[in-house]
Amino acid sequence: MDALVGKGLKILWPSDELLLFYQACQALGGRRWDLLEERSVVGLLHLLTELGLPGERGLNLDRPPTELTTPEGVRFLAKLVETISQEIQVDPPAEALLGTGWTHERRIHWLARLGEFYEMLRRSADEGVVPPYPVLLSNEDAIECHLYVILAYLDDITEMPGTSRTDRLGVINAVIDYLRKTGLASRKPDLLSRLHQERDRLEKAG
């Protein structure tokens, strides 16, 4: 796994999937850059693609590379993220840009990660440089994307040293409530069962 981190957010991304994202950004960016700063962003993505090893391809926007310290560079990468998000809403996405093998679950994971990364880029820039996320998801996709985000947060705090049992139980209960309120509980019975089992285990451990 690789991580995109910064501005209070953390996104874990399988290395091969992040590599595909970088390659898609390069394919799009190579066709539309006009400024030196935009060309530099394409060069950065190429470097991460060619030289980065699995587990070393992530980005830390709290300590950004030089290419992402200018408004033009951050805005350009955010625009690429937006474009790829729009491509992934098409089922299946364009094979020439994003390959094959797109299941519904994979699309949701990508849409959730891209939305979070866009927000990370927006927070990393001065106000007004990157506009609010302009991609409009269907109601169903938006509900599932939010589920993915809160499950990722649950995984994160579970692995975080010092996280209390109470905090973990609070997030588990929030996920269970979300599944019930959105109607996802009946569609994801295995997930609901695992959450109940983990809640029972934590309550007994107390």
List keywords for this structure.
mainly alpha; three-stranded mixed sheet; 3 strands; globular
Calculate Rg over CA atoms.
18 Å
Largest sheet: 3 strands, mixed
Shape from CA axes?
Answer: globular
Q: What is the rounded distance between the termini?
A: 32 Å
Helix content: 55-70%
The parts where pLDDT drops under 50 for at least 5 residues are none
Strand content: 5-15%
- Structure summary, number of beta strands: 3
Count of discrete alpha- or pi-helical segments spanning 4 or more residues: 8
The averaged pLDDT comes out at 91
Spatially, the strands of the biggest sheet line up as 2-1-3
Q: What is the element string, with H for helices and E for strands? A: EEHHEHHHHHH
User: Structural class of the helices, strands and pairings?
Assistant: mainly alpha
